[in-house]
Amino acid sequence: MEASGEAADNGGEALAEDVTPALHKYLMDITKEIRELKNDITALNTSFKQDFASFKEDVYNKLKANKDELQDQKKSFNEAQTHIEELEAFNLEAKDTLLTTLHEQRKLQDKLTDLEGRSRRNNVRIFGVPEGAEGDSVPRFVEELLQRKLTLPEGTSLLIQRAHRATARRPGPGETPRSIIINLLRFDTKEMILRKAWQKRVKLGNSPLYFDNDYAAEVVQQRRAYMEIKKTLKAKGIRFQTPLTRIRIHWTDGPRLYNSAQEAAKEMRKRGMDVQMKEADEERTMEERIHAAWTWQHVGEPGACGGLTQRTRGRLQEFRRAEDRGNI
User: Fold this and answer.
1) DSSP letters of 53-90?
2) Bridge-partner residues for 163, per DSSP?
3) Residues 153, 159: contact at Cβ < 8 Å?
4) CA pair distance 247, 225, nearest whole angstrom
5) Long-range CB contacts (< 8 A, 24+ apart) of 211-217?
6) 247 - beta bridge partners?
7) pLDDT in tens, the chain (328 residues)
8) Apex CA 282: angle with CA 280 and CA 285, to 5°?
9) Distance between CA atoms of 324 and 328, rounded to whole angstroms?
10) What are the residue ranges spanned by the domains of the chain?
């Protein structure tokens, strides 16, 4: 028994001696592989850190570039917004200045028209006299024509200062003859001639003659706008009068005075009348066209261009003061 036990111990020691080198080699191999794996992981980690750092730097650079670009765009947008605000302010101030100037120009034009009308208040125009019928002296022809055709009281002195054809191109055969303008010394003589001429039909041969006031060109243009209105009223048998640049219509509910052809036409359409106005007669005024074209409105305080209107208004006020001093 003892012999067999010793044999077993000796066999175990021999097996241990055989296994230990193999295990040691195995462990060494594992350790080596672990060390190599660790080195690979370390190298991979270093490469990853480098790649991540490079990626981070690229992202940072791109974000910085985008930020700079956004700041530039914001700056450009702010500058564009400022320019637009300045442009809006300028346009609004220019609109106000233009409307103010147009208003002042209209007032001056009205004054000029009034002065011209006053200088013509002793004038009479005769329409329809054939060209050449006046002979070599228009004043003498007119004197004889009025005395004969209007049956003026005997001994009436017309006191004609000047008489001549309208200063226009001499018409050709078949064209409308030029009117004759008569300047009288006395206003009451002019009124008497028109009153008598309007009470009867005056003819020179087969040519009907028409007598009227000598209006300024602007007044003639405004009166011409009532042409279609007067035709419609005549067809309806409605009485009307045209004092200077207005029209008075005698409706069944009483007379009404209208300041423009557009105003009268609007009223006639309301009353069921078909008035065919020419396009030129219904043309909008300059102020209406400016309001339609400029749709911007003032919002808040005026911009940097506000001084433009102030300077213009100041000059206009200086002009008005100088004009008022001249009228004293």
Assistant:
1) HHHHHHHHHHHHHHHHHHHHHHHHHHHHHHHHHHHHHH
2) 182
3) no
4) 11
5) 211/124, 211/125, 211/126, 211/127, 212/124, 212/125, 212/127, 213/120, 213/123, 213/124, 213/125, 214/120, 214/123, 214/124, 214/125, 214/181, 215/117, 215/120, 215/244, 216/113, 216/116, 216/117, 216/120
6) 258
7) 455 555 555 555 555 556 677 777 888 888 888 888 888 888 888 888 888 888 888 888 888 888 888 888 888 888 888 888 888 888 888 888 888 888 898 899 889 988 998 999 999 999 999 999 999 999 999 999 999 898 888 778 899 999 999 988 899 888 999 999 999 999 999 999 999 999 988 999 889 999 999 998 888 888 888 889 999 999 989 999 988 889 999 999 999 999 888 889 989 999 888 887 765 444 456 667 776 766 655 554 444 444 555 555 565 566 555 555 555 5
8) 90
9) 7
10) 1-119+298-328, 121-214
| Cα(147)–Cα(133) distance, integer angstroms | 16
Which residues are paired to 165 by β-bridges?
180
Please give the Cα distance from 305 to 94 (Å, whole number). 9
Q: Residue 278 — φ and ψ, nearest 5°?
A: -70, 155
In sequence order, the β-bridge partners of residue 45 are none
> What's the token pair of residue 29?
């191999």
Q: Indicate the CATH number for domain 121-214.
A: 3.30.70.1820
Neighbour tally for 140: CB within 10 Å: 13
Nearest CA to 182 out of 170, 166, 197 is that of 166
Within 13 Å and on the Cβ side, how many CA atoms surround 2? 0
